[in-house]
Design a protein that fits this description.
7 helices; 3-stranded mixed β-sheet; 5 strands
Length: about 160
């Protein structure tokens, strides 16, 4: 049996010829502004690259840029960014709200922009909800960016 040929008489492409552009090496590289900081950081973290070495080697290839864009989209849809910000909130809690409040209240959950705080006494729930709510929300927005926490809920624990 004869091997198939295309209309111009050349053999059909092999599977490796049909490989997506993502895995084919590209010589064109992009520096600096071609990739925003979050996507560059995600790509470097994913592959264990040092961002300064990426820039010193001539930047990222076109396929690496596409991969970074895909990763940013997928991780965003999975809510990874909010979870990372939530972890940063926990890690920086005392810095964001101050020692006296941090000594009596701590973050226990963040869902859909609502931060739940566990307080060690009902009096602290009253104090925080009546007098400190606006300052806590403002400090979180100033420290971690607006939109992460829209409201606070309080509970014992």
């Amino acid at each position: 049996m004869n091997s198939p040929r295309s209309s111009n008489g050349t053999p059909p492409p092999t599977p490796s010829d049909r490989a997506p552009a993502l895995i084919r090496p590209r010589s064109r590289r992009f520096k600096g502004d071609a990739l925003d900081g979050e996507a560059r950081s995600a790509l470097c973290t994913w592959f264990g690259w040092d961002p300064s070495e990426v820039e010193s080697s001539g930047g990222l290839t076109e396929s690496e840029l596409r991969l970074a864009g895909c990763m940013k989209t997928v991780l965003g849809e999975m809510g990874v960014e909010e979870r990372l910000k939530g972890k940063e909130l926990v890690d920086r809690w005392a810095e964001l709200v101050g020692g006296p409040i941090a000594a009596h209240a701590h973050p226990v959950g963040l869902q859909d922009g609502v931060l739940t705080l566990g307080c060690d006494h009902p009096a602290w729930i009253e104090e925080l909800s009546r007098f400190h709510r606006p300052a806590i929300l403002r400090n979180i927005a100033d420290g971690l960016g607006p939109g992460l926490v829209r409201d606070l809920r309080f509970r014992i624990g």
